[in-house]
Amino acid sequence: GGTIPPNPAEVLSSKKMSQFIESIKDDYDYIFIDTPPVGIVSDASIISSYSDGVIFVVGSEEVDSNLAKVAKERLDSVNSNILGVILNKYKTETNSEYYNYYYHSQEEKKKKRKRK
Q1: Distance CA 39, CA 45 (A)
Q2: Maximum Cα–Cα distance for the chain, whole Å?
Q3: 56 backbone dihedrals φ, ψ, rounded to 5°
Q4: Per residue, what are the HEC states of the chain?
Q5: Cβ distance 37 to 43 under 8 Å?
Q6: In terms of Cα–Cα distance, which of 103, 85, 105, 84 is closest to 93?
Q7: N or C: which end of the chain has fewer CB within 10 A?
Q8: pLDDT confidence of 2, banded at 50, 70, 90?
Q9: Are the C-beta atoms of residues 60 and 87 closer than 8 Å to each other?
Q10: How far apart, in Å, are the Cα atoms of 80 and each of 10, 29, 35, 110?
Q11: Gyration radius from the chain CA atoms
């Protein structure tokens, strides 16, 4: 809320922001901070500098692989701790063998639990 600062990156990189994140770490097991894409603004790079780790989310068939590589390089350049990658919006056929195997095996586990 409030007025938009002339340079939001300054707010994110301020000592006050870093202190705020440190002050709430004792109150929460996990703190997730969603940022705009790495290539658009510097927010993700700044926030990753005082984060314990980064989860890199890539939209399937939306992000060119070269742009994803550049984004990773930008995170690497600020020594981000990349914990993993989530491939989001992946299209699959609902009749695929893996999907059916997984879905049916999960349903069987639920049925067994209910019987006990």
Answers
A1: 10
A2: 61
A3: -90, 115
A4: CCCCCCCHHHHHCCHHHHHHHHHHCCCCCCCCCCCCCCCCCCHHHHHHCCCCCEEEEEECCCCCHHHHHHHHHHHHHCCCCEEEEEEECCCCCCCCHHHHHHHHHHHHHHHHHHHC
A5: no
A6: 103
A7: N
A8: confident
A9: yes
A10: 19, 20, 14, 39
A11: 20
The 10s digit of each residue's pLDDT in 69-106 is: 998 998 999 899 999 999 888 877 664 555 545 555 55
Q: Looking at the DSSP assignment, which residues form a beta bridge with residue 86?
A: 57
> What stretch of H or E contains 48?
helix 43-48
What lies within 8 Å, CB to CB, of 26 at 6+ separation is none
The token pair that represents 24 in the structure block: 């709430």
